[in-house]
């Protein structure tokens, strides 16, 4: 017996209208682009960010331009107790999250044997531990109320290849990939899809030096040679992946990653 597929309305399939997205690290170079994409798709934004974040106004302007509402909560995500308390404040304020985007992250570079305890702790605390805690706290009211939800973590192509001079970062991003799978294993049957995006090399204020400083010419040449697309990624290149994972279009996608790297891992 043949079964015809239903006609799909793409506008509804990818719509985020009426949704609320909670975002950590949304003021960063990649974070702002992904947050703007969520707002452009119809979601209101709840931003968890550090006090006096220098890029706060950029997010304010971007969300306003998309015609959505922005609420801001101040928290240093390195402090798990403060992060958990922030989520409790969200719930007591009546916030009902539908989407979680975890993109708070830092990078430190050093020889593998020379990383200090402080450098290791900073990277693991922000990139991995804060992501894990944020997933936990976001999911608790959804599980209690039986509501569906979408969790989007930000890993990296370094989750797969390791890299050089970034050992703690590699460990943290490998961990993000694994906790994404682990959370999905427990929550997918309850209507919460947990996935991650793995960006490659992207053009942001933090990577500007690698593309313009003659000191890093060899590295820039390597990126260009190794990337089939022959360019660094632009933050807007992440928009499609984040909207897909936040929308109903990904309701049967869970525990996996979307690599956005211009073909790097396939080369």
UniProtKB/TrEMBL annotation:
It comes from the Eukaryota. InterPro entries: NAD(P)-bd_dom_sf, Sc_DH/Rdtase_CS, SDR_fam. Keywords: NADP, Oxidoreductase. Signal peptide: none annotated. The keyword Ribonucleoprotein does not apply. Belongs to the short-chain dehydrogenases/reductases (SDR) family. This is 2-deoxy-D-gluconate 3-dehydrogenase. PROSITE patterns: ADH_SHORT (PS00061). It comes from Zasmidium cellare ATCC 36951. GO terms for molecular function: oxidoreductase activity, acting on the CH-OH group of donors, NAD or NADP as acceptor.
């Amino acid at each position: 017996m043949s079964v015809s597929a239903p006609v799909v309305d793409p506008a509804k399939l990818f719509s985020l209208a009426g949704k609320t997205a909670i975002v950590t690290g949304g003021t960063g170079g990649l974070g702002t682009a992904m947050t703007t994409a969520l707002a452009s798709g119809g979601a209101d934004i709840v931003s968890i960010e550090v006090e006096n974040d220098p890029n706060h106004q950029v997010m304010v302007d971007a969300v306003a331009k998309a015609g959505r509402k922005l609420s801001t909560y101040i928290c240093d995500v390195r402090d798990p107790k403060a992060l958990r308390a922030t989520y409790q404040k969200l719930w007591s304020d009546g916030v009902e999250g539908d989407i979680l985007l975890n993109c708070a992250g830092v990078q430190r570079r050093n020889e593998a044997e020379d990383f200090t305890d402080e450098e290791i702790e900073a990277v693991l605390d922000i990139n991995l531990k804060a992501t894990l805690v944020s997933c936990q706290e976001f999911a608790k009211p959804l599980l209690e109320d039986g509501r569906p939800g979408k969790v989007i973590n930000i890993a990296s192509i370094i989750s797969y290849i390791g890299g050089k001079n970034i050992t703690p970062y590699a460990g943290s991003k490998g961990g993000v990939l694994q906790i994404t799978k682990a959370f999905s294993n427990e929550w997918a049957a309850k209507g919460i899809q947990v996935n991650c995006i793995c960006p490659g090399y992207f053009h942001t204020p933090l990577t500007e030096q690698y593309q313009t400083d003659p000191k890093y010419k060899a590295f820039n040449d390597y990126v260009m040679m190794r990337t089939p697309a022959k360019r660094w990624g632009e933050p807007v290149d992440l928009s499609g992946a984040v909207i897909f994972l936040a929308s109903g279009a990904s309701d049967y996608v869970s525990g996996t990653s979307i690599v956005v790297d211009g073909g790097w891992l396939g080369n």
